[in-house]
Amino acid sequence: MPFNLDKFVASPSVEELDSLKKSEIVKVAKHYGIEFQPLMRKDEIKRYVLEYLVDESILPSTVLETAITVPTDNTFELKRLEMEMNKEIRLKEMEREREKEKEEREMQMQREKEEREERERREEKAREHEFRLKQLELGVIKGSDPKIGLDTGGFDVSKHVKFVPKFQEDNVEKFFNHFEKLGEQLKWPRDKWSILIQSNFTGKAQEVYSALSIEDSMDYDKVKKAILQAYELVPEAYRQKFRKYRKADTQTYVEFAYQKERHFDRWCASKKVSTFDTLRQLMLVEEFKRCVNDDIKTHLEENKADNLKVVAQQVTVDLSLVLSLQQILVKNNQIQVVKRTTRSAQTKLPLKT
Fold it and tell me: Region labeled Disordered — which residues (predicted)?
């Protein structure tokens, strides 16, 4: 006998509801405006219907005591599958964690190996250089020019090494200035300066000094020149150093003015400024860059133009090229849109019979 919704609504009962199929119970729930999820089980939807009928005083509350929803075999099976899936996911996550930790350990070991090898290479170079200097001091280098042999002339280098200032990689010129002042004040023989100063070299300076020939390593001026070249900064860094340099509390105004002037001279030297016109162009180009946006400024820094007119023409040409390219891209996009629209319209035209 087919289900009659009107008949059930006119006289609802638990017995009638128990005999209904899920699709029929769904109709009842929709009739009463009961909210439920389509994927819910039949017993769950029936429970919602009973609760509604009790709330509306259509059925007595005792019907809820007997309407106990018992999980079906499918429910237990789904729960088991869900647990197995979660277990598999956890196992995969643990495996990924182990692989990640393994990779990190291997990378750490590789880094430590590279650092150890680099440290050993530096130490080996330092030992070789120290041995070479000892040979020079003792005058036992076979086949070398006797003039190169170190004649101490009663000057004990070992007693004066402790006065050599600490080498500063971030301010190499200051280190050399300090050393030269001490050399003059303590009356160190100038031909011993290279032996004294090398004792405190570190990092790049030590590598540069080790690469010098024996003759050049004994010449202080050549040592100083080679190391200053190794630490030479780009013009932009010199410019920023000049612009940002401020007076320290411990400086006198004379000392501050002297250092400010030195920063300016280094900037000019790095840009090869030697005439009034080149100085004028340096100032004009800097001011031009200060007045434009950062993208254009970065572009100009990469091209390294030093003439104001050239800089302005270069920016104009480059911006024109960018604008032309944008117009071409817009035009191409418009053409593509027209083509797609045409094809779409063609596909919608009725076929001729």
Answer: 95-126
Contact 286, 242 (CB under 8 A): no
Give burial (CB, 10 Å; 0-12/13-18/19+) of 147: exposed
Residue 4 DSSP SS3: coil
Contact of 26 with 17, CB cutoff 8 Å: no
Inter-residue contact 242 to 263 (CB < 8 Å): yes
CA distance 240 to 31: 80
Tens of pLDDT, residue by residue over 5-21, are 888 888 888 888 888 88
Q: What is the pLDDT of residue 322?
A: 63
Given the structure tokens 């964690």, which residue do they identify?
A: 97
- pLDDT for 139 equals 46
What token pair was written down for 274?
A: 């030697």
Gyration radius (Cα) of the chain, Å: 44
Residues of the chain with pLDDT under 50: 69-73, 139-152, 353
User: Which residues, 6 or more positions from 289, have their beta carbon under 8 angstroms from its beta carbon?
Assistant: 297, 300, 301, 311
Task: Report pLDDT digits (tens) over 169-200.
Answer: 877 878 888 899 989 988 899 888 988 888 88
Q: Tell me how far apart the alpha carbons of residues 40 and 33 are, in angstroms, rounded to a whole number.
A: 16
Please tell me the predicted confidence (pLDDT) of residue 252.
92
Closest C-alpha to 69, from 89, 47, 85: 47
Q: For residues 46 and 28, is the Cβ–Cβ distance under 8 A?
A: no
Q: Is the pTM of this model over 0.85?
A: no
Question: ∠ CA(269), CA(274), CA(275), 5° rounding?
Answer: 145
Angle at 283 (CA atoms; ends 244, 297), nearest 5 degrees: 75
